[in-house]
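Hi R.,

As promised on Friday, here is the backbone we talked about, encoded as structure tokens. Could you run it through your design pipeline when you get a chance and send me back a sequence?
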């Protein structure tokens, strides 16, 4: 079965979209973890004093 020469071009935007979504999810997760740890440290400092 032969594919047209430009058949692979249709796939790239879709793959790039998935990469962007994955990167966005990683950034969001990392930011949420940073906020969580900052809040945890604030609570721990509040309990100390």
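Update: got your reply. Pasting your designed sequence below so it's all in one thread:
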């Amino acid at each position: 079965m032969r594919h047209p020469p430009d058949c692979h071009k249709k796939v790239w935007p879709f793959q790039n979209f998935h990469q962007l979504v994955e990167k966005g999810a990683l950034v969001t997760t990392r930011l949420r973890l940073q906020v969580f740890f900052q809040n945890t440290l604030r609570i721990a400092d509040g309990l100390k004093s």
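One thing I noticed while checking it: Residues 12-48 form the longest helix (37 residues).

Thanks again,
M.
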